[in-house]
Amino acid sequence: MELRCRRALSAHMRIAGLRKTEEKLELVKESLGQLQIIARAQQDLNVDKLFLEVVEKVLQFVMTPAEFRKQYGMSPHVVTGWLTGESVPHPSLRQRICARLKEKIEAKLKR
């Protein structure tokens, strides 16, 4: 009986380990996709459509719009405008935003 319990526990632990590995792989896969989006936008920061893709897909992957607003000291109206595509930040700000989001993704991967 005790041997069966040990085997069952061992099997359960292996399954839990595999689940964690699968979750980590999924995070890596998602992170790489987000980093590719940032890299495309950084190739030409003057293309609004590319930057809006960063805002739409990457920003919400690494932090909430509220966290982003606090970090950059922006009003809710400004970030909401980006998320809805009604406005975009000046190209000089886009590089800093991309760099910060990239740092956040890399930090997420290190956990």
Please state the overall shape, judged from the principal axes of the Cα atoms. elongated
**Helix segment tally:** 5
Low-confidence runs of at least 5 consecutive residues: none
How many domains? 1
User: Span between N and C termini?
Assistant: 39 Å
Mean pLDDT, all residues: 84
> Beta fraction of the residues?
under 5%
Essential attributes:
111 residues, 5 helices
Overview of this protein structure:
It is a single chain. The protein is mainly alpha-helical. The chain has one domain. 85% of the residues lie in helices and 0% in strands.
SSE inventory with pairings:
Layout: H1 2-43, H2 48-62, H3 65-72, H4 76-84, H5 91-110
Summed up:
With 111 residues, the protein is mainly alpha-helical. It has helices at residues 2-43, 48-62, 65-72, 76-84, 91-110.
